[in-house]
Write a structure and sequence with these properties.
Blueprint lengths: L1 H28 L3 H14 L4 H13 L3 H14 L4 H15 L4 H21 L4 H13 L8 H14 L1 H14 L3 H14 L3 H13 L3 H15 L3 H13 L3 H13 L9 H14 L3 H14 L3 H11 L2
Helix pairs in contact: 1-2, 1-3, 2-3, 3-4, 4-5, 5-6, 6-7, 7-8, 7-9, 8-9, 9-10, 10-11, 11-12, 12-13, 13-14, 13-15, 14-15, 15-16, 16-17
Length: about 325
């Protein structure tokens, strides 16, 4: 009977904890991270052993790039449960992000913790895709003198490929791109498209083509992506490449006008950038009046330095 009454006492606390967690998730979805932090800080103070709330508080700090707060909460979780791979992954990730913001000397001291945390997470969960991605990037980006290793990066890419072909191919594409082997990177990004065909797969190949100054290939790949995914954002991307490289201007103009006509906030890129790209196209054509019309529309939406600089260039035509 005593245990029954203790259970009854716990039920309201569990209900409050779950409600707080759901509220925090909703605030995350709305990008109201500071508000979520406030709610979660109070909730954790009232339930200091609630791992779900502690993790969410760490996430709230992380979303705001408050790495010290994130590290503190994730470290507490690791101490509470040393066998949870995700806790080690998040702890290592927060320390890694902190390392990017401090001096090189301080960063060296953090990198060891990052490696140990990621390695522990990978050992605890042989199917943890995210931590293997983190290892691929970490070992490629670190200088060799402090533990960077192409071989280790490729090792984790191979593990990814065994877990998920598309992730493995994307990881190898990333490694070859980082190692300045664009032809091999292209090969693996194409393999990722064949196997997965997600927007991310197409985007990685498009980004490679843009980086390698191959705009025609970039546009062709964007068109293939649009045929499969029918995303309005593709219209902007095609228009951007056309405007940046002064190629296929008719196609670029048509795509940008389609983007504007169908624009919603979900498309990501604000419509003012489409006006800016149309102004670029008009300037390429030598149409000063039209270029001014479009850049003024862009500036009416948002006064950004690239827009101001572009307008000055138009006025000098």
């Amino acid at each position: 009977m005593k245990h029954f009454f203790l259970l009854l006492l716990c039920i309201p606390m569990l209900s409050i904890s779950q409600t707080t967690a759901e509220t925090a998730q909703q605030l995350f979805d709305q990008k109201q991270y500071s508000k979520a932090e406030t709610i979660l800080t109070e909730a954790v103070a009232n339930a200091p052993n609630d791992r779900q709330l502690i993790e969410l508080l760490g996430d709230a700090y992380g979303f705001q790039k408050k790495w010290d707060g994130a590290i503190e909460n994730y470290e507490l979780l690791v101490e509470m449960d040393d066998f949870n791979a995700n806790y080690h992954y998040k702890f290592g990730g927060a320390k890694g992000m902190k390392a990017l913001e401090v001096s090189k000397l301080r960063a060296i001291g953090l990198i060891g913790d990052v490696k140990r945390s990621f390695k522990r997470a990978a050992e605890l969960d042989p199917t943890h895709i995210e931590v293997r991605w983190a290892m691929v990037e970490l070992y490629m980006q670190l200088p060799g003198i402090i533990g960077g290793s192409y071989k280790k990066s490729m090792k984790y890419a191979n593990e990814l490929e065994n877990l998920s072909k598309v992730d493995g191919y994307l990881a190898k594409g990333y490694i070859y791109e980082y190692d300045d082997e664009p032809e091999k990177a292209e090969e693996y990004y194409k393999k990722a498209i064949e196997v997965g065909g997600s927007v991310t797969c197409y985007d990685k190949l498009t980004e490679l083509y843009v980086k390698e100054n191959q705009p025609l290939k970039a546009i062709s790949n964007l068109e293939k992506s649009h045929q499969k995914h029918q995303r309005n954002g593709m219209h902007y991307q095609i228009g951007k490449v056309a405007a940046d490289y002064n190629i296929q201007l008719d196609k670029g103009e048509k795509c940008l006008n389609t983007y504007i006509a169908n624009y919603t906030a979900k498309d990501g890129v604000p419509v003012c950038w489409a006006y800016y790209r149309l102004s670029q196209i008009a300037k390429h054509r030598g149409n000063k009046q039209k270029a001014l019309e479009w850049i003024n529309k862009a500036l009416a939406e948002e006064k950004l330095d690239p827009f101001e600089e572009h307008k000055e260039a138009i006025l000098e035509m």
